[in-house]
Amino acid sequence: MIGLSIMLMGLVYTQPVFSLEQNNSSTAEQNRNIAFSLNAQNTTSNGSNIFDIRLQNVTTWPNIHSNVKTDFNPNVTSPEIQSSAFIHPFAVVIGDCYIGKLVLVAPTAVCRGDEGTPIHVGDSSNMQDGVVLHALETTDHGKNIDSRRFSSNGDRLLGNDSRFSQGYAIFIGDRVSLAHDSMVHGPAWIGNDTFIGFKSVVFNARVGNNVAIGIGSIITGGVHIDDDRYVPPGSVITTQEQADLLPPRVGSEYETLNKAVIQVNERLAEGLLAKAYDSQLTNLIKQRETLIEESMLAIDNANINSTATK
């Protein structure tokens, strides 16, 4: 029965602490109470909690698991996913990936922290369908590789920088929208409140805060896009001169787009998470009813056999 419970819970991966960090609506509060109640009451035969399922067994969560050990990355790390994030069962999160609060990782999105690491996705950001996060090696046989990581505030780090060990192959800030089929390939840094348009690519670049990147654009070549800039659809930005000539976001057709996209995806993450909890509760009730029926039948059969032998 426990195996069935684990299989049914494949609808969603969350951390074992059920503080959803959601709004104060009655639905959210109800689901928090349900989760805490289940967490307190339902344990397996060995004392572990049914809802305290961690990434100790790859087969439990085939789409969310640790990276493999390699000569360029000897550290085996499991993803760190905040409790209010929603990871769709057709999304993939591997290795040293941090997924923040209220992040929606949509079907076929991939965060693969197995080569360049780590990867950080900030609170209230979203990875829409088909998004890919991956990065070039950051270390090789124990040696740090220059310029393959950024600090959390966007500084590109040399291998001998004391901050390198705390740096990021990919850093995605808070409230960032990664639209359908876009790719961020590290080394890359994306600031807060930025929109990356459909099928756009950011590779080996720093993109500032409140930037809007139009559909089908390419940002690469080690460029740095300043805050509050607009990258028109179909742009190819490969030199710093091109980046410096980009127009302001304010006044563009993308001026307020990201705010609306963030609101939609936060609500989707909350709703999908609540639905998953409801499904878990329904399945658990059914399992309990089945266990009670089986126990009662076993008792009845034991009594019948005992009476027959007398």
Q: Can you walk through the features of this model?
A:
The structure is a single chain. With 310 residues, this protein is an alpha/beta fold. The chain has one domain (2-192, 256-292). Helices cover 26% and strands 22% of the residues. α2 runs parallel beside α4. The protein is elongated and about 95 Å long.
Distance from N terminus to C terminus (CA atoms, Å) equals 35 Å
Number of strand segments: 24
How would the global form be characterised? Answer: elongated
Q: Main beta sheet, described?
A: 13 strands, parallel
Q: Beta-strand level of the residues, as a percent range?
A: 15-25%
Coarse structural class = alpha/beta
Q: Report the C-alpha radius of gyration, rounded.
A: 23 Å
Structure at a glance:
With 310 residues, the chain is α/β, with parallel strands linked by helices. Helices cover 26% and strands 22% of the residues.
Q: What secondary-structure arrangement, pairings included, does this model have?
A:
Elements: H1 2-8, H2 26-41, E1 64-65, E2 80-81, E3 86-87, E4 92-95, E5 97-99, E6 104-105, E7 110-113, E8 119-121, E9 126-127, E10 132-135, E11 139-140, E12 143-144, E13 149-150, E14 156-157, E15 170-172, E16 177-178, E17 183-190, E18 195-196, E19 201-207, E20 212-213, E21 218-219, E22 224-225, E23 230-231, E24 236-237, H3 240-244, H4 257-309
Parallel strand pairs: 1-4, 2-5, 3-6, 4-7, 5-8, 6-9, 7-10, 8-15, 9-16, 10-17, 15-17, 16-18, 17-19, 18-20, 19-21, 19-22, 20-23, 21-24
Antiparallel strand pairs: 11-12, 13-14
